[in-house]
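A brief tutorial aside. Many learners find it easier to grasp structure tokens once they have seen a single protein encoded end to end. The record that follows does exactly this for Aromatic amino acid aminotransferase. Read the sequence first, then the structure, and try to relate runs of similar tokens to stretches of the chain.
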Amino acid sequence: MKRRSRTVSGTAPQGPRLRPTLDGIPTYKPGKPAGADAYKLSSNENPYDPLPGVLEAAVKAAGSFNRYPDMGVSELTAELARRFDVPVEHIATGTGSVGVAQSLVLSTAGPGDEVIFAWRSFEAYPIITQVAGATPVPVPLTAGGDHDLDAMLAAVTERTRLIFVCNPNNPTGNVIHRAELERFLDAVPAEVLVVVDEAYIEFIRDPEVPNGIDLYRDRPNVCVLRTFSKAYGLAGLRVGFAVAHEPVANALRKTAVPFGVTQIAQDAAVASLRAEEALMVRVDALVEERARVVAGLRAQGWEIPDSQANFVWLGLGERSQEFAAACAAAGVIVRPFPEGVRISIGEAEGNTIFLSVAEAFRKTIDG
Ligand SMILES: *Cc1c(COP(=O)(O)O)cnc(C)c1O
């Protein structure tokens, strides 16, 4: 067989053809790693070192990493099913909840289909939507940083396949209350999947916020997304899961990367669930720190949303980069967006440095 010519004649040599949908996706720019002496308040991680028992479980699993992990993730799945009182078939795990979210999009949407989410919200939503070739439909938050659920409903078309609801919202920290969310879920067409992303549920203290698992039980089109990355402190191990009715959960098992959740991650997640009491003491301490930071900011004159997550939000707009630079100069790394700055609640010393930067910066705003 005659080989095709090496270049298309008359044009410059070209590389492999990539899917045009990727052009709309920003190239990932790794954040500046926090120097050894800086506090990293930029990724909403748990600032505590791993619990001893969890670390032991991970180290033990590391001893057999020449073997593939348990593909069925059976022990973790059984533990989760028991804890939430759901069938094991309703649990689908993945490489972080971002991995599960990507499988959810791949399972429901392709070219021509639409995925709705609030904006600004979790930055992965538009990316995983475009990777699937589907069309992102961002719906602006209200001025106060809330999901505009009426506008999201109005954005539903016959092409809508999936809606992400982030509760509490990353990066603003705002929550959606039970009555509001139930009204929304009841109005969404039954063939549209609603994914309630509860990455920060353990930090919620507002009793009006629903637990998504109560909402999914009698709604076949509702799925709950959870992660071990935040409150449980396993961000580096990459394990998250969905609770969904069987057709959706089965689709997630088909679209997930095979053997994506390592045995180290599986065993550490099981150990974390068993060590939950000790972990929740740490979560309580972070919630107390959040209260201290929020009170401190308000005393300085900042108007901020009532965060129910492990971060706070300063809606600084075009001064966001400047604020992040001031924080970095003082030894804390925060996360600027075009609309504002998200600051994770970390070690008390780091939070205190952030508060002092915020106080000085505040004075440059009102004069
Ligand atoms: C951090 C975060 C996740 C979790 O990501 P992992 O992949 O589980 O580490 C999911 N959703 C939101 C909104 C988040 O902020």
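Self-check: The chain is about 40% helix and 15% strand. If you spotted this yourself, you are ready for the next section.
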